[in-house]
Write a structure and sequence with these properties.
The complex is a heterodimer of chains A (328) and B (355).
Chain A (H helix, E strand, L loop, with lengths): L5 E14 L2 E14 L3 E5 L6 H8 L8 E12 L2 E4 L8 H6 L4 E4 L3 H4 L6 H12 L4 H14 L5 H4 L9 H13 L5 E5 L7 H18 L2 E6 L2 H7 L2 E6 L2 E7 H6 L4 H9 L45 E5 L2 E4 L5
Parallel strand pairs in A: 3-8, 3-9, 6-7, 7-8
Antiparallel strand pairs in A: 1-2, 1-4, 4-5, 9-10, 10-12, 11-12
Chain B lengths: L2 E4 L8 E6 L3 E16 L4 E17 L3 E5 L6 H8 L7 E8 L2 E4 L5 H7 L3 E4 L13 H11 L5 H14 L16 H12 L6 E5 L7 H18 L2 E5 L3 H7 L2 E6 L2 E7 H6 L4 H8 L40 H5 L5 E4 L2 E3 L15
Parallel strand pairs in B: 5-10, 5-11, 8-9, 9-10
Antiparallel strand pairs in B: 1-2, 3-4, 3-6, 6-7, 11-12, 12-14, 13-14
Helix pairs in contact in B: 3-4, 3-5, 4-5, 5-6
Chain lengths: 328, 355
Amino acid sequence: MNEKDLILDIKDLKTYFETNEGLVKAVDGISYNVRNKEILGVVGESGSGKSVTALSIMQLVPQPVGTIVGGKIKYYQNGNEIDITSLKPRSKEMRKLRGNEIAMIFQDPMTALNPVYTIGNQIIEVIKLHQKVNKKEAKELAINMLDRVGISSPKQRFDEYPHQFSGGMLQRAMIAMALSCNPKFLIADEPTTALDVTIEAQILQLMKELQEEMGMAIQLITHDLGVIGEVADRVVVMYTGTLVEKASTDEIFYNAKHPYTKGLLKSLPKIGEKKRLNPIEGSPPEMNNLPEGCYFAPRCPERHDKCIKEPEVFQISEGHTVKCWLYE
Amino acid sequence: MKAIQLNVGSMNERRTLNLSSNDLILKVDNLKKHFPIKKGVLRRVVGHVKAVDGIDFFIKEGETVGLVGESGCGKSTVGKCIVRLLELTDGKVLFKKDGKLVDIAKANKSEMKEIRRQVQIIFQDPYSSLDPKMSVQSIVSEPLKIQNIGNRQSRKEKVIKLLDSVGLSKSQLKRKPHEFSGGQRQRIGIARSLAFNPDLIVCDEPVSALDVSVQAQVLNLLEDLQEEFNLTYLFIAHDLSVVEHISDRIIVMYLGKIVEMTESDKLYGNPLHPYTEALLKAIPVSDPRSLKVRQPLEGSVPSPSNPPEGCNFHTRCSYMKKKCIEEEPELIETKPNHYVACHYAKELNLEEYHT
């Protein structure tokens, strides 16, 4: 693959947290890339490190408990390579990227917005930080953006507070805020988890439309394989801070190799099939007390002697890799 | 066999349903729950949020009834009214006790205490529904203690048995909730609800807060327990594939009212209400090779403090006609065991769910 097609390239990223219970390796040596104008899905259960990966890209890892201890995050801005890991979180360069080039939508729109400022004010703040515009122009841009994400009577809603918006409307406002500076790369961290199915469908459709219109790349973080199957081009599967499988969405759904991915797919209830579910046994290990070797081995139905050693990454086909000894 | 009256639809029109009263475990009649909206220094009541506005349904012994709808449709309020964690504004909740139907809403304190042995609830959030300062043993044995059942030793034995039936071990008795994962905590909540071998359990979104792999474990557990203890479930959820998986019959609610109620195959295979059709169309198309396009339902749920005139759903309905704005439809048994609240249920040719 041509490097020019990439917008983000992560190599062996490690983000650790010092906690009272010991060192937590929230992200432990993951590598993947995001291509221009694609939707990359990141799947994993709670605690798998998918949100910490996103925070690492944004240089928003909570300080001082969390640190990026190793690896590289390369971001390609119009063909120029920027090493995000070498930038200080509060540096000018990072601030130019964050919110401007790389934007993020958070899971819970109720808590991600400030309740004491109007929706409009919060969007204007982003625009004025990154663009040379006066207040009036910024307001116009903001109203335009609210209109684009499908908020009716945007002029009136501009002056309203977050509590006056419904959950779906808040998520739209969050998207408007994230996209107000035309970012090239958008990280959406569980954007629809807190929403009803009907609203989820609206938001996903909106994100797809805007992605095509603005030509940006999206990294969509979710635990819901249904959402992934619907919108993602490629998928990476995470388990306890490691990346266990990486493939195209079609491969993940029809040719999953890692026992964890297979287990996830089998756990989903399917409409019209009233058969007993076949879940993964047990629960994920505690992050400060990980098992030796393969972290999934204690729950794995296909474990064997070799699993006491940490598995290597094996290639199944072009673009499909799996971290499991079964495919040695 | 005695035929009992089932009040379906509005107050002024009653329809008789031939149901054997022997089969019923719960019958809800015209249940209403309105929350007052208070304003000003004097906290004057300026309006009401009609969370549940006159619904009727029944549950037969041993079946699982799913209750679905968007957030704010009143489904959790229904669950809480049935176990009387909320007092009803109006209506009856008839529960079968010793072969007779008794009204939970009118039971006094001591009667309620007895009824609580038979009707239990499992809550959505396993993090906030368990007291963080209590050990698992005290959490699960507390209901037994309140009801003065057994002594300390026999209660402990019972707790061990209960934990065993939900897949937790004896060695975990002394642990506190924070030492467990989300799925395990939900198991503790389930063990607590089983303490008296209840007949009916209201499951209020029991798996919504759990990860997919753990969600499947808990669903399997609920099914196993149903078989083992002959339980009846009212299963409240918003995930349509989970509800389809577990339910025999499904009730669809919208803005405090029932819009459709039938067996789950019929609901997915032959929906008769436009709202149900819209919900089915909004289910994620997870298969990347599928050509089906997910169709979102436009707009959002109107405020329950000021519901639209006529049919509640007319503001979002794609088949809306003049009559829908003027007249409120009643819940009618349009086909055998298939209740729908839509003026045009017979004429519309709605699309079934297909993968």
